[in-house]
Amino acid sequence: MLLSGSLNRLTGFHHIGLACRDIVAEEAVLSLISYQRNGPVYDDPVLGIRCCFLTTPVTGAPCLELVEPLPGSSVLEPWLAQGVKMYHAAFMTSDLSATLLDIKAQRGRVLVAPTPAVAFGYRPVSFVMLPNMILIELITAA
Predict the structure, then answer these.
(1) Measured in whole angstroms, how far is the alpha carbon of residue 98 from the centre of its chain?
(2) Is 89 helix (H, G, I), strand (E, B) or coil?
(3) Is the pLDDT of residue 90 over 70?
(4) Reduced to 3 states, what is the DSSP secondary structure of residue 103?
(5) DSSP string, 59-109
(6) What's the pLDDT at 1?
(7) How far apart are CA 64 and CA 131, in angstroms?
(8) Are strands 135-140 and 86-93 parallel, antiparallel or unpaired?
(9) N or C terminus of the chain: which is more exposed, having fewer CB within 10 Å?
(10) 126-130 long-range contacts, Cβ below 8 Å, gap at least 24?
(11) Predicted pLDDT of residue 7
């Protein structure tokens, strides 16, 4: 069980991350269920990815982030090689450092230390593998 402090610092759900080899092709398929690009495509050389966000007018449907590796990056290869599309859930946090400490205290593993992310105006993000093998992205709230 996560410490209650972690939960108090989570300020909202943000998106589901989908790994893909080709954002344009993936976007075309998702348009069949009303998803459309919501903003520009971002290249983030520090994280080794290209990404964009998709939204839909369908009530209750989550925001999706399409993520493809930049040329020469292998960051998504473990998921892509296994055919895994949905690979992370992203949450906003009011205190990234404290949330990471709480999650680590409960056997979560930080896979990507706090890193400024282009898609979020260079606010820090971190990727954490929870003890149940679910990958989450924590995004510093504005």
Answers:
(1) 19
(2) strand
(3) yes
(4) helix
(5) TTPPPEEEEEEPTT--TTHHHHHTT--EEEEEEEES-HHHHHHHHHHTT-E
(6) 47
(7) 24
(8) parallel
(9) N
(10) 126/96, 126/100, 127/88, 128/100, 128/103, 130/103
(11) 59
CA end-to-end distance (rounded Å), the chain: 27
Q: Read off the tokens for 49.
A: 């990815």
* Band of pLDDT at residue 2, cut at 50, 70 and 90: very low
Residue with tokens 């998504």: 76
CATH of domain 4-140: 3.10.180.10
Tokens of 29: 């398929």
Q: Read off the pLDDT of each residue in 62-85 and give the average, rounded to a whole number.
A: 96
Model pTM?
0.92
For the chain, the domains span 4-140
Q: Which two tokens stand for residue 115?
A: 């890193």
Across 31-36, average pLDDT? 97
Calculate the dihedral angle through the C-alpha atoms of 65, 134, 92, 105, rounding to the nearest 10 degrees.
-160
93, 114 contact by CB (below 8 A): no
